[in-house]
Amino acid sequence: MEPSSAGGGSAAAGGGASRPPSFASQTNALLRKNLIFQKRNRKATIRLIIVPIYLCLLLSILQRVINNLLDKPKYKCGCKCVNVNGSVPCQNVCGIQYSTLDQAGSCPIPNPPEWPVLLQVPRPEYRAIQDSSKLFTGLPDGSCRKSQSCPASIPFTGTNESLSTSVMQNMFIDSPLTNLSDFTSISTLLLGTDVPGTSTGFIDPAFISGAPIYVLQSQCKPMDSVTVHTTIDAVNVQKEIKCVQGLPLWRNSSITINEETFKGYRKGKIGEGISEVAMAYDFQDSNEKRFNVLAIYNSTYQNISYIPMPFGLLRVSRSLNAVSNAYLQFLQGQGSGIKMLLEFSKEMPKQATRLTIDFSSLAGPLFFEWVVALLFPVMLTYLVYEKQQKLRTMMKMHGLGNGPYWIIYYAYFLTLSTVYLLLFVIFGSVIGLSFFKENDYSIQFVFLFSFINLQIVLSFLAAAFFSKVNTAQAIAYLYIFGSGLMAGSLIRNFIEGGKFPSHWITVLEIIPAFSLYRGLYELSQYAIRASETGNPGMRWSDLSDDSNGMRNVLIIIIVEWLVLLPVAYYFDHASAVGHRSSPISIVKRLLRKNPTWRKIAVNELADRPANDVHVEMEKLDIIEERKTVDQVLQQQYSGYAVICDDLKKLYHGKDGNPDKHAVRGLSLALRYGECLGILGPNGAGKSSFISMMIGFTKPTSGNAFVQDFSIHTDMDNIYNSMGVCPQNDMLWEMLTGREHLQFYGRLKSLNGSTLDLAVEESLRSVNLLLGGAADKQVRKYSGGMKRRLSVAISLIGHAKVVYMDEPSTGLDPASRKSLWSAVKQAKQDRAIILTTHSMEEAEALCDRLCIMVDGRLQCIGRPQELRARYGGYYVLTMTTSSVYEHEVENLVLKLSSNARKVYHLSGTQKYELSKQEVRIADVFMAVENFKKRVEVQAWGLADTTMEDVFVKVATGAQSSDQLS
């Protein structure tokens, strides 16, 4: 038999493949189901949409609080009522001379103050001293730390050592500090401070802090200092000036200087390294006609968060001025008096400003990343929930393809995400957040729309690796919060630090959370600049700027989406029903040398070893079924609904446990219009067999054909005409029974009045129309109602093969009888395979029964045949007092010498009497005579039941397995 060519089957026999549902009918069914689910879940959706609105309101409130704080008099330009030119009354005059440092930032500065330019000098406890390595010579020992008299070391080098040394000797001028009295006199000296420069817009912080100002000289007397009084603009300044020895030290190369200056930063207190030097010079190829010097300064202060980067260069001007004057002295002679006097530094005039902090743009990248990424766990939870509850599997087994599933769910998630973010941006703009208002809306839309597409694909990809909702949720939330914090820390520092290579930043942005943060960071920076300068925010023309990372981010997101889309589709398809349960196992399967399953083709039948068929003389019915299967497999079109050919399933043991043979070489053939019942004790392999037939698991070996389609290669065609009532109910808690049947009916290509009629008939057949149960949500159903609904789902539509795994579990007797009637009516034109533990149900519904024990088929046939074959005896039960038990045993042996006692407890005995040895009339007569002599409390004679047959076959098979 060629499975691929057996598409139609025999219509005359009631078989043949049903017409598969069209793509439109599948998408229509799924879309309607999702719309109903969304309608029921609207409260959760509203709560989800409220999250970004709530965050926008929170940011707006915080922004207003900050604005109100900055509008207080403390931060406004200081004002005072003064008499101007003798005017009376006084006039209110505002300006920096009436302000504190907090107020100065908002004041106009029409005439910026002048202050001497200073050199950055290490603090006394951090100045370089000799370390234990003795690698850097000329440094003082650590004793100067106690008296705080350590010199400020200045290493230097150059091609011409004598010239370099001469220039450095002219660096310092020794002048008594008592000669210092005013602003002009101190500007002629080499001044320094240990206070880093800041962006005050008013005056160098060294003049308004308690720290001293240093003057660097070649020699200093102990405690050499002086206090100078001066006025800078309208500010009276009184500063202590201390003498610090400047110590030039020759080094052989710039490499040595680099090692020395890099040896340690502020490690003086713990004695590590040589600590800091004041400055360093490399005179390179300088000579009498050419002055070429490299000034080396401490840039560590650039990394302090409250100091903007340009102020790392604030002290360099004095360093260059000092070495230039020393070179002039070298050329002209020390007594020439020629020098370049750098008298003061002065900022440009400043207008009055209102202090503002755009908090939403400043904190926006991190918070807005969490808002956008919050959709990821929502979508992942939705997908994993359907996977955990086997709902995806149930839909696929009723004909839903991967294409419609992906299109509907992708469109559903895309619509939800788009509405979510549109409301976020619109509401943020309405309440005045500059992050949204200042930047071009089209850029925001393209960026966010691109990312939510990538995020949807990531949700599908991640869902393939999870089987539990709780695990998926926990990891998803950890991912979005953890990756957001990491992106906020790394990306911002790398960009603003300016030292991390830009191409490595681009590599980091391959991580979706990092690319999202980078895009939001760029938008926030343009919004901040817009609010500060009045210039427009980000526009499309700005993407051509090399410093703008938005263009690279958009390219990365779009390329990742295009690459991951087919990857996610493949893994999603691979983890669905009929495939390996986990994408990780795909790799294992590729690496495995000997696959654990093989496909049985027609030309392999002749080569099958003889020992593959277990022949036992007492199981002629199994042999006949095997022959039937072999004959049918030789035909091009079988006309059978189900054919199982030596089907086996082996579960490999783990952690040292032995392998488990769940199904051992099962072969059977099932016609249309026939119901086959599978009986067996727990663990016999019934559910494993059903799982293979419906595509839950792959057979280890062997094959099966459903409507002439192989379960190895054609499960998609099998699903089109298959109905399943699983052992565990697979239902949506928020949908009603009617909505379930409508959904699965549409998957079976039913529509319009045909669908309505089929749904009504299905509900009526399983008694779900009473009391409005059909229109109640499934979460309000009892266990029995859910079971009846699962049976109705399996029978709706044109399913030609139906699998029912213990369908009547949990039903009351009345519901069970009604369910049996529905199944009897449904089996007229379809094949049904049913597993059950109820012998009554098996006899009522099944045309043939088979009994499985330990994965092996023990017998197969009609119920009457099995009773006749395995139950050729009557069961005599008699209850007397314990005194007469021996009398009862003698009576039974007189009736049948081969009688077998099967039960004995407290005077009640049960015997099996061979039908060939006794007649019913003889038994009745013997018991009547016996009752005249002995008091018989109760007695009965019964024919063999299916329960007796089942117990006998099961116990016999288990006993033989133990002996073998």
From TrEMBL:
It is a multi-pass membrane protein. InterPro entries: AAA+_ATPase, ABC2_TM, ABC_transporter-like_ATP-bd, ABC_transporter-like_CS, ABCA, P-loop_NTPase. The keyword DNA-binding does not apply. It is found in: Membrane. Residues 642-879 form the ABC transporter domain. The chain crosses the membrane at residues 44-62, 367-385, 406-436, 442-467, 474-495, 501-520, 553-571. GO terms for molecular function: ABC-type transporter activity; ATP binding; ATP hydrolysis activity; lipid transporter activity. Residues 1-17 have a biased composition (Gly residues). One of its GO terms (cellular component) is membrane. Belongs to the ABC transporter superfamily. ABCA family. CPR flippase (TC 3.A.1.211) subfamily. This is ABC transporter domain-containing protein.
